[in-house]
Amino acid sequence: MKIVKKIMAAVFVLMALVVIGSAEDVSAKQIKSAGAAQKAALKKVGSATVIEVDMDMERGVLFYDVELLKKNKTYTLKYNSKTGALSEYGWEINIKPYSGQADKLISQSSIQKKALKKVKNAKIINIHNDYDDGISEYDIKLQKGNKRYELVYNASSGKLLDYKWEIVSTKSSSSSKYISAEKAKSIAKKKAPGATVVKVEFDNDDGMQVYDISMIEGMYEYDVTVDAKTGDIIEFDKDFND
């Protein structure tokens, strides 16, 4: 009888651990801090070095943008804090190998085949030839389900230089609770049209959701705080850039 009781007790303990583990799995779906986003990104891109973690509010949802470095590639990953889902992923080669432009360029049809082999069952939206740092490149955009891809190939060698995909939302932005980071940047730049934006952060300022934007122009540095709901400029500072 004692053995039966011990077995039943062990079963109850095991069931409790399963329940606890399940609860942890559910909570783990949410990313509640920059540290959690960093951990998720390092799991996706092993043995990488985290360069920067930023926050951004889109359609009322907080996203974490993580930038990592691994060997000769820079990776960018964007996580939805609410669901923990990866909504954007990409990488680019930092030092692009130069290929003499005297070489014959690969045809667009060949590049299209390469892209469709990389992203199977996708639909090509656009392809164009461009120059970047003296290198002729093919920039090709594709669509597959709710993902939009952008691939950049060296037009001479056919080497894939940049790769990126992002989730394309079908929801209307009119119901958004907060303005986007891009909108906040455009509002800030109206105060200093010639300035360059160097940092945008979504923050909580005494219970108010704001965008803190830093810009530079020549010898001056600007700090602008924009109300994330209304788009009003709350603070504006102009100082000498040390």
Q: From the structure provided, what is the oligomeric state, counting identical versus distinct chains?
A: single chain
Instruction: Supply the number of structural domains.
Output: 2
Radius of gyration: 24 Å
Shape: globular
For the terminal residues, how far apart are their CA atoms? 80 Å
Roughly what fraction of the amino acids lie in strands?
A: 35-45%
Summarize the helix and strand pattern as letters: HHEEEEHEEEEHEEEE
Please provide the count of β strands: 12
Under CATH, the topology of the largest domain can be stated as Nuclear Transport Factor 2, Chain: A
Model description:
The protein has two domains: 39-167, Nuclear Transport Factor 2, Chain: A; 178-240, Nuclear Transport Factor 2, Chain: A, CATH 3.10.450.40. A hairpin with a 2-residue loop joins strand 6 (135-144) and strand 7 (147-154). The chain has helices at residues 2-28, 34-44, 108-118, 181-189, and strands spanning 49-58, 61-70, 73-80, 86-93, 123-132, 135-144, 147-154, 160-167, 196-205, 208-217, 220-227, 233-240. It is 24% helix and 45% strand. It is an alpha+beta fold and 242 residues long. The radius of gyration is 24 Å and the shape is globular. The chain has an eight-stranded antiparallel β-sheet, covered by helices on one side. It starts with a helix and ends with a strand. The protein has four helices and twelve strands, in the order ααββββαββββαββββ.
